[in-house]
Amino acid sequence: MKMLKIGLLLVFMVLAQSVSAETLQIDGSTTVGPIAEAFAEYFKSIYPDLEISVKKTGSGDGAKALGDGMCDIAAMSRFMKLNEFKKCADKGIMPVAHVVAMDGICIIVHPSNPVKALTTQQVQDIYLGKITNWSQVGGPNLAVVAVSRDTSSGTYETFHELVMKKKDIADKVEYVNANPQAHARVSGNRGAIAYVGLGFVDAKVKSLTIDGVVPSKRTIVSGVYPIARPLFLFTNGYPKLGSMVHRFVTFQLTEVGQELVEAKKFVPVTDY
Q1: Is pLDDT above 90 for 145?
Q2: Residues 129, 139: Cα–Cα separation, whole Å
Q3: Domain boundaries, the chain
Q4: Is 103-221 in the same CATH topology as 2-102+230-263?
Q5: Using an 8 Å Cβ cutoff, are 89 and 236 in contact?
Q6: What is the mean predicted confidence (pLDDT) over 249-271?
Q7: Residue 209 is inside which H or E element, if any?
Q8: What separation in angstroms does the CA of 4 have from each of 44, 261, 272?
Q9: pLDDT at position 228, please?
Q10: Are residues 268 and 137 in contact, defined by beta-carbon separation less than 8 angstroms?
Q11: Segment 25-36, tens digit of pLDDT
């Protein structure tokens, strides 16, 4: 294993010597952002002349940036919509998807909340405003504070489709711009509930069992967990073999790339 890692490092170093100064711009999902940042840090250590930037503005903004020619890679926590494809195609951009990791949307509450499990129907009812107190689902007499991602988020899109069944979220639900903000809102409020990617679950929040299934790497990659999804990197066409873009969007297939994905608490695409 150690010799394999050394061999991979030597290959990257040889390739690096043949690559002149380049720039690589990644824009999009706040969920995929930690993976992109980890890859970027590793690439900078191998390619010292590479200028690489990672912006975390949301999946929708990533798709727009790719279509406008403002980024080389769009990071998205959902698949690109038909209207986004059309806007790109109208500008001569042909989006190609590369799955970088698997993820599960985890329903999180404050660690002091005794509720350990909900059904997707109960979660939907909370966000529809039908369940307003934790006592309605076996918890304390405490008002529910529902927190959602903003509507431009890929995480919101997946939640809206898989949990809400495309029903409108109640007006009283709070909106935040990113996973860290949703995490902070729940960790600081005993009555709060929110949804975040698997990589954002830690000891400061509690992830709930959904429909009797605990969100884990195994249940997510197998599709048993009901709110599982792939994470994407989109490029303009399939990148030229050997190009910096190609190396970046296929890095998750290498042993080092898989380790970086796991280090960010997501599931490698090869973990089946």
Answers
A1: yes
A2: 17
A3: 2-102+230-263, 103-221
A4: yes
A5: no
A6: 93
A7: strand 209-210
A8: 21, 18, 21
A9: 93
A10: no
A11: 999 999 999 999
Torsion, Cα of 257, 261, 267, 268 (10° steps): -10
**Sign of the C-alpha dihedral, residues 217, 158, 73, 24?**
negative
Fold of 2-102+230-263: D-Maltodextrin-Binding Protein; domain 2 (3.40.190)
Class of 103-221 in CATH: alpha beta
pLDDT, tens digit, 9 for 90 and up, residues 53-77: 999 999 999 999 999 999 999 999 9
- Predicted pLDDT at 3: 52
The tens digit of pLDDT for each residue in 66-114 reads 999 999 999 999 999 999 999 999 999 999 999 999 999 999 999 999 9
Residue type, 262: E
Contact 145, 174 (CB under 8 A): yes
Long-range contacts, 5-13 (Cβ 8 Å, 24+): 5/255, 5/256, 8/254, 8/255, 8/256, 9/46, 12/46, 13/46
The neighbour count for residue 177, using CB atoms within 10 Å, is 15
DSSP 211: T
Q: Taking the CA of residue 173 as centre, how many other CA atoms within 13 Å lie in the half-sphere pointing to its CB?
A: 26
CA distances (Å), origin 32, targets 22, 37, 183, 233:
22, 9, 16, 8
pLDDT tens across 202-258, in order? 999 999 999 999 999 889 988 899 999 999 999 999 999 999 999 999 999 999 999
Crossing angle of the two packed helices 2-17 and 255-263, in degrees rounded to 10: 100
Mean pLDDT of 5-19: 49
d(CA 68, CA 87): 9
Nearest residue to 31 (alpha-carbon basis) of 188, 163, 141, 180:
180
What percent of the chain is predicted at pLDDT more than 70? Answer: 92
Q: Which two tokens stand for residue 161?
A: 């489709």
